[in-house]
Amino acid sequence: MEKFLITGGKPLKGTVKISGAKNAASKMIIASLLTGDTVTLDNVPLQAETDIARELVTMLGATTTLDGHVLTLTTKSISGKSVMDVTRKNRLAILTLAPLLHRVGEAFVPMPGGDKIGPRPVNFHVDALEAMGAVIEKVDGGFMAKVDGRLKGTRIELPYPSVMTTETILLAAVLAEGRTVIKNAAIEPEIVDLIMLLQKMGAIIEMGAGRHIEIVGVEKLGGCYHKILPDRMEAASYACMALATRGEIFVQGAKHRDMVTFLNAVRRVGGTYEVTNDGIIFRGAATYNGIKLETDTHPGFSTDWQQPFLVVLSQAEGTSVIHETVMEERFGYTKALVDMGADVTLFENCLGEIPCRFRDKNYKHSAVVNGPTPLTAQPLVVTDIRAGLAYVVAALVATGTSEITGIDHLERGYEDLLGKLQSVGADVTVV
Predict the structure, then answer these.
(1) pLDDT digits (tens, 9 = 90+) for 273-312
(2) Active site residue 127
(3) Measured CA angle at 381 (ends 379, 382), to 5 deg
């Protein structure tokens, strides 16, 4: 199995071009199942997550062609109702329920897989589809769903603005009979980009004030061309590398509007940035100061930004506090950072102001980080995408050479990570 060898201590400098957003591309590939016409996606990131999504829709009858970063998908008919072989690799399978119910009236999906960052409940998805008329039964290994005729539009208020549940409802509502209203919907940039794709396909979708989305179902959707937005998670990852190594990286393609909260954190900790027409330049500083962070759904500080940013905070003067309110078990990666020399203590208490779902539930979802602390190279094992990126950032800072295994997780989320790291001067090889 391949692994990274990273020798740290060198400021990174140069330009990195950001790929298309993984969290948008994979969902759009699933959305192509809603029509028998051709959907063309541009700026598709070339990494394992989108490969899995392609494999999934191919299993269901899609024909796909990839030319550079342009992916064409045509699903003239659905040839399968189950995606058992690939869905243990991630959570995408749950999103096929709505397209399959529309196209063939039934579907089977297994329990979702994915990264080891806490339970991934599917009850929100099930409850929403049942409210729209689907009959869903939990069976051995997963869920069997059926619908008699068309799904029916309804009013759905989510108990939490779940991204994937919002996506499930959108995919269900666009071809449902009547009007669907989603209250407390997720409004991440990737959700908005999916809405733009669905509109191009013929959907009627309106975003109202607050977290309000209204969809009027149509009889049929058609094909279209759509260019996927840049990946704000990847952009933040390279920004953290620039800050942590006290370097300077021009993150080409990064969008200011999608990173406002992250940029505020950069400025508060003592880093600097410069917004240009083509991206954002991130510059490290000689010293940083500790800050308080709370993750939240968009427009809050993304949970996927938290891990690499914690490494930056380990190099800051004083005490920092991170309150994780999105994923209950997302701090597991910090044990390895402590082994490298970071001073991180986890607490079950809510060390923040945001009303938190995990209060009194025995999850260690708050972290106190004291710094600055020197980091020393250690063997590191990646268990999820963003934690793995945090390990990369830590290895770039550390004295000595770190061996990072499990890089297949990184390959799921980052296109050409090795090449991009080397292009900004990182001392990294694959063995």
Answers:
(1) 999 999 999 999 999 999 999 999 999 999 999 999 999 9
(2) no
(3) 140
